Amino acid sequence: MKDLNDICRDVAERLNLSLTSVSATIKLLEEGATVPFISRYRKEVTGGLDEVQIRSVELTLKQVRELEARREFVRNTIAESGKLDDLLERRLNEAKSLTEIEDIYTPFKVKKRTRAQIAREKGLEPLARRIMTGHVPANASEDDKAGASDIIAEWASESVRLRNMVRRSLRRFGSLKSTVVKGKEEEISASALAQYSNFEIGVRRVASHQYLALRRAEREGLVRVKYDLGSEKENLEESLCESFMPRGGNPEAAEIVEKSVRDAYKRLLRPSVENEISAELKEEADKVAIEIFSENLRQLLLASPLKGKRVLAIDPGYRTGCKIVALDEQGTLLDEGVIYPTPPRNDLVGARRTLERMMQSHGLEVMALGNGTASRETERFLKGSGVVEPAKVFVVSEDGASVYSASEEGRKEFPDKDVTVRGAVSIGRRLIDPLAELVKIDPKSIGVGQYQHDVEQSRLKEALDFTVMACVNGVGVDLNTASERLLSYVSGIGPALAANIVKYRGENGGFHLRSELKNVARLGDKAFELSAGFLRIPDGKEPLDNTGIHPESYPLVKKMAQSIGANVKELPGNEALLDRIDVEELARKGVGGKETMNDIVSELRKPGRDPRIDDASADFVPSIESFEQLAVGQRVNGKVNNITAFGAFIDLGIKENGLIHISRLSSRRVNSVSDVVRLGQQIVARVIDIDFRRRRISLELVEVV
Fold first, then answer.
1. 3-state SS of the chain: helix, strand, coil percent to 5?
2. Which of 20, 21, 491, 668 is most buried, judged by most C-beta within 10 A?
3. Coil, strand or helix: which one is 649?
4. Which tens digits make up the pLDDT trace of 415-471?
5. Helix (H, G, I), strand (E, B) or coil at 25
6. What confidence category does residue 321 fall into, taking pLDDT thresholds of 50, 70 and 90?
7. Contact status, residue 195 vs residue 180, Cβ threshold 8 Å
8. Helix orientation angle between 98-105 and 160-173, rounded to the nearest 10 degrees
9. CA 605 to CA 597: how far, in whole Å?
10. Is CATH 3.40.50.620 the right assignment for the domain spanning 115-293?
């Protein structure tokens, strides 16, 4: 078993990073430090590795350890069988991947009662070995030769050389072909998977979204998917036979071996390698899909908050009306009601009167409108009502709001309110602070990304949880107002300590100093170290508690202030004083680490700043009102509301979204949709195709607004 030094070396080589940096990072991870903490507060230790690099170290460390655990298991299993020799030991030690290790292990696996096993029980293995030397005994019966052939077929299927030949051929020449299941022609033609009926693509060229779509179509019973080698199949079989053929033997032995190899290829080798390649394609497709989902989620979570505004939030509807709620600047529910400005009632006068009363009574300044059913009709009414300026009506994604409404979190916050009120509150709070509200919802329910229900769910959850944690810690959290759920994502906290913090807050009237965190039940020194820098206390007793400066660096801040003859309390926001601090000189004198001191100066320049860019005032004005208004060649306004590997889905202000395929984003080759557009961004597009039957709209990008 490799020791930690060898593992660190493997990780560093895989990531092409400094061994010193990787070793230091792994040591911190082993001590329980989180990725956000290490990337923010241990830059001198890691040599300045950023959050992405540290996360890669964490994930690669896990992969290397899984590989080593499997290597050790295989070594011990073979040793217990008494068949571990120096050659096998060396091959195991030199294996660089799970595939290599599994190839070594294959002949030693405990097998179910196979045809080869039955033949061995009949004592036919010596005959099989004789045939493999090129000779067939004259007294061997046809049944005995058939049994020996089964044993030879198993040997062929366990041959690393033959397995690699099949792998290479399938990867290089193979294609994936789908055929529609009989009787499912109409169902698939009307589905979103229609393009995958009678579909074929090379194994080397299949994209992540295509592979996941093929798997979904097969799982839903719409198509059958198989690997096809075309004319290469016969070439491969001949090469396999030639490679496994005994030299200088008689024709009968050659015939038996050839028959055995062809049987092995069809019955054992091909299915096994196909399963292996399918697993690899699935793993890669999952990786891409999860990366896209994580990036989309990050963009949503880091959307600009509309702070300091009192909000009227509206959950639109038809028959049951539009639920409206009044929220103060912190998202506290002040009032609720229902208006009916949409069909069937069309009570525009009554709706306007109710809005005016609620806006005036509570000093509401802006409106947040959910983008669900009846959203467009409601938006037109609001912007034309005269109750508020059109630019102060914001359309907000309500994906996942219904999940929050029915969740334990929603019931805990509003035990005496129904789901419609909770949903409207969630919509309004998403405008006030998207991050604080969206963390209450299972990330998978937020509705961005591709095929999120088809990927490996534990990997998806791990990646999305990390994305949420990275965003929460990157922004920082108000220790006295953050919800229990938001606090749970802070580095070093978790659900149990978050609950204890909220309980302490309720019993003691909040925190005045970060150091008071140590009074919270079960919050020890390690949890304090990992969390304190990410927690903010505006208007507390210590000005530095409202910055991203870690309490461990407060003595360093004092030395930095003393170096220019100033007091720490004079530094926050004082550009003139901060410009006088010579970080290079202080680092040379050994006062502190250069990276840490630069971060301190940066934090002091804008104490309490929110790193999210404030572009929430951008107003999306649709250029069409219905699908029927569309025409090929028409220019339309849109807003990006989902990004996938194959393109961007565009909100056009109508029920149907448009799609800009990745090939239509730019005149030059684009590797990633996110290189060109981001979620929430406004664009101008041109209509290039309209599918009236399936109500699909194909677009090309004209410009980003």
1. 55, 10, 35
2. 491
3. strand
4. 999 999 999 999 999 999 999 999 998 888 887 777 888 899 999 999 999 999 999
5. helix
6. very high
7. no
8. 140
9. 12
10. no
Residue 134: DSSP 8-state:
T
CATH code for 467-605? 1.10.150.310
Query: What CATH superfamily classification does 4-108 receive?
Result: RuvA domain 2-like (1.10.10.650)
- Please give the helix or strand (H or E) that residue 599 lies within, else none: helix 594-605
Query: Hey, is 345 helix, strand or coil?
Result: coil
Give 617's pLDDT tier (boundaries 50, 70, 90).
very low
Architecture of 627-704 per CATH?
Beta Barrel (2.40)
Q: Are 410 and 441 in contact (CB under 8 A)?
A: no
d(CA 77, CA 92): 12
The rounded distance, in Å, linking the Cα atoms of 591 and 580 is: 16
Average pLDDT over residues 624-646: 92
Q: Which two tokens stand for residue 683?
A: 């664009």
Structural tokens at position 599? 């971060």
DSSP 307-332: TT--EEEEE--STT-EEEEEE-TT--
| Beta partners for residue 637, in sequence order | 684
- 318, 353, 420, 588 from 339: Cα distances, Å: 10, 9, 13, 67
Sign (positive/negative) of CA torsion 259, 262, 266, 268? positive
